[in-house]
Write a structure and sequence with these properties.
alpha/beta, Dihydrofolate Reductase, subunit A, eight-stranded mixed sheet, RibDG_C, 5-amino-6-(5-phosphoribosylamino)uracil reductase activity
Length: about 180
Amino acid sequence: MNLQCSAYIATSVDGFIAGEGGDLSWLDEANRLVPEGEDCGFSAFMDSIDYLVMGRNTYEKVLSFGGEWVYTKPVIVLSSKFVSIPDHLKDRVSACSQSIEELCLKLANQGARRIYVDGGYTISQFIDARLLTDIELTLIPIVLGKGIPLCNGLHQRQELKLVDKNVYDFGFVQLKYEIDYGS
């Protein structure tokens, strides 16, 4: 299978992707530091993917923001439970209960070259399955102390290889790692 599975996610310096109860207000505050027109490479990353794969909790969090759906690429929501998809999103969002191995094989067979894996638990599942190929972390200059950790539910230790870095004048640090599963 020749499918690149990539994560692109922001964390606090102490490794949380959300505060207590899934609070993301700290990200809104951090985004005010970013100069207008700067997106820290997110648009280029999104242009490079074919599908976005996220867990049900991440999907429900994005839905809770209200307003217009922000993703133009097809979104697949992983869940073993029923996922409610509003009618206006049914052409862009689908639910999947199959294993991530089966999903990746299916997407690769359909011609997908790269997917975006989002959500702490989903990222951990991809690492545990030895399918995540790379991760781009944007460290936000805040310490939350409590919250939802990046690798929530990871079952194994995993080595990473730093392949790129970028330090922004407004305090963000971006680190890109390849995942080294060894032989």
